[in-house]
Amino acid sequence: MAYVDHAFSISDEDIMMESSYSINNRPPIKEIALALSLLVFGTLGILIGILMAFNRVGGDNAHGIFFAILGSILFIPGFYYTRIAYYAYKGYKGFSFSNIPPV
């Protein structure tokens, strides 16, 4: 007789127990708001930093470059989590709101 692994099989008891199980895939509002604000402030930081570097605000380019670097540090996680939230909202395979960590 062949070996059958019953650890992952579905029995009648499992079907009866499944009725109380529900998937909660609501969008996390606070986390998405944080990701959007990081994206917006990061984009503004990069743009303002580039303008500051070209116009030599503060006497040299260093202030603008620092501001652009700070903006990119904000932009990268903001873009990443906003993209995950958008793809999860659109229903792309492999993306879920559970991929966004809680705040």
TrEMBL record:
One of its GO terms (cellular component) is Golgi apparatus. It is a multi-pass membrane protein. It is found in: Cytoplasmic vesicle, Autophagosome; Cytoplasmic vesicle, Secretory vesicle, Synaptic vesicle; Early endosome; Golgi apparatus, trans-Golgi network. Involved in trafficking and recycling of synaptic vesicles. PANTHER family: C20ORF30 PROTEIN, TRANSMEMBRANE PROTEIN 230. It holds the Pfam family TMEM_230_134. Keywords: Cytoplasmic vesicle, Endosome, Golgi apparatus, Membrane, Synapse, Transmembrane, Transmembrane helix. InterPro entries: TMEM230, TMEM_230/134. Its main location: cytoplasm. The keyword Transmembrane helix applies. This is Transmembrane protein 230. The chain crosses the membrane at residues 32-53, 65-89. The lineage of its organism: Eukaryota, Viridiplantae, Streptophyta, Embryophyta, Tracheophyta. Belongs to the TMEM134/TMEM230 family. The keyword Membrane applies. It comes from the Eukaryota. It comes from Actinidia chinensis var. chinensis.
